[in-house]
Every structure is written in C-alpha cells, then in structure tokens.
Specification:
With about 260 residues, this protein is of the alpha/beta class. The protein has 9 helices and 7 strands, in the order βαβαβαβαβααβαααβ. Helix 1 packs parallel to helix 2. The longest helix is centred in the middle third of the chain and has 29 residues. The chain binds NADP nicotinamide-adenine-dinucleotide phosphate.
Length: about 260
Amino acid sequence: MDLGIAGKWALVCAASKGLGKGCAQALVGEGVNVVVTARGAEALEATARELRGLNAAVKVIAVAGDISTTEGRTAALAACPQVDILVNNAGGPPPGDFRDWDRAAWIAAIDANMLTPIELMKATVDAMAERGFGRVVNITSGAVKAPLENLGLSNGARSGLTGFVAGLARQSRLAARNVTINNLLPGFFDTDRVRTAMQTAAERSGKSVAELTAARAKTIPAQRLGIAGEFGEVCAFLCSAQAGYLTGQNILLDGGAYPGTF
Ligand code: NAP
C-alpha cells in the first residue's frame, strides 16, 4: 500500500537507535524526508548514513542535541523546513523506588516524557492544521495501560502526556483539518534499552541474558520480543494519508501481553 506521504517532512526525535530509528527507517522507506535527533553525534551520523542508503530520493538531516532541552528542540525544529509529521520520543526515566526520588528526578522525567512532546506539538500542530495535513505519533509505553512497579517515573510522566493528548487530539481546529495525534505504546521490544536492562537483571540474578529474555518472551502471547522495524511500520501507517480518521488513540504494540479485552 502506498501510504501517500512521499515528499513530506518528518521530525523524528531520539532516533539514532531503537524504536525512534525504526520509525525513521519506515518513514524514509515511504519517501519521507526526515530530521533525526539524538544526543550522541557519532551514532546519530551513522544512522543518518544508513537512512540515506535506504532511499536516495529523500533528504536526511541529523541534529545532535538533547530533545528535552529548549536548545535541543529549537535546533531540531530549525533544521526541518516544515514539520508534517512529528514523532515524539526520548529516553525513558530510570527505574527505582518512589521513596528515593526527589523533585529533580520528577522534573527530569516530566520534562523528557511529558513537557518535551507537548512543547513540540505546540510548535507544530497549528501550522499543520493551516496546511491541512499533520500526523503526530508519541512513543509512550505499555506502562500507561498497565503500570510497571519499578518504573513509577515513567508511569506518572507518560500518563500526564496521555491525558493531555486525549484532549488536544479532539480539538476540532486540529481534527477537522486532518491533523491526527496518537500515542504508540511499546510492550517489550528488543532494543539497546531493553538489552541493558536485561544485562543488569542477569548480573543480579546470576542467570544469563538469554535465559531471562526467553523467560520474559514466554509471558507474551506472541512468544517473542518486538522488533524496532515492526514498531516503525505501525508508526508509518499512523502517519499515512489513509489514517486521517484515526486520532486520539493509544495503540498498544505488545504481542498480546496486556490481558484486558479493551
Ligand atoms: P534505546 O534503544 O535506548 O534508544 C533511545 C534513543 O533515544 C537513542 O537514539 C538515544 O540516543 C535517544 N535519546 C535518548 N534520550 C534522548 C534525549 N534526551 N534527546 C535526544 N535523544 C535521546 O531506547 P528504546 O528502547 O528505543 O526506547 C525508546 C522510548 O520508548 C524510551 O522512552 C523507552 O522508555 C520507551 N519504551 C521502550 C520499550 C522497549 O521495549 N524498548 C518499552 C516501553 C517504553 P542518545 O542516547 O545518543 O541521545
């Protein structure tokens, strides 16, 4: 299916690795020009080269910087001729016990996983509406539907974003002008972040990473971890011309792990 977005411009945040990179790859595959960001310039440049190799017809611009800062967001927005598609993403907050988190820890989590996507939507959605096309995909987490005990910072900050988006996506000045805003909720995907977490768990438990990963995969009806590429393909569909009537939704991509009927 031709997704009808070739030639559009996308800002894909936090995209040198993992799920953000998967989204950038899928969009580039559809002929979308992309601005990709990450803090580490070296990995980001390597990803930009890979993306250019996927589709010589598109422009790929790499902007190194921390997207959770005003400077990082300003530089990313300035590099994108117009933002038709916005994929909001940033690193997740650290795990822990809420008794150990001070105000600074909460502010950092809320900045990265709630206020940064809100600031980027504020900077882009009205111009999208004027042009009559816009797609926003916020990468959040399955933890929004089923909280993870040791990820309270993530549960809290991302739920704040989810509540805000539920209202914003339903503003007629956006929805009636072909601007959609949806959240994509990853379950358990095979990315650097998850591999690092599994390595830490392996060191603590004395079990191997392979053993722990296999045990976790068994708890998922699909019996496997997700792949960043398939996450990106779903993101690209949400950004497609065909998905104009799909807005304000939380789409869980978890291989069936969430046990609820809805
Ligand atoms: P990952 O493999 O560690 O990749 C994270 C990417 O984001 C890297 O490119 C990283 O590059 C960039 N990044 C991190 N913080 C950034 C910042 N402040 N500014 C700009 N770029 C930044 O992580 P992932 O697994 O793809 O996870 C992506 C998001 O989904 C995270 O918020 C994570 O918590 C959430 N999530 C993931 C899963 C999963 O199963 N993988 C499940 C639920 C939720 P630099 O470090 O160089 O900046």
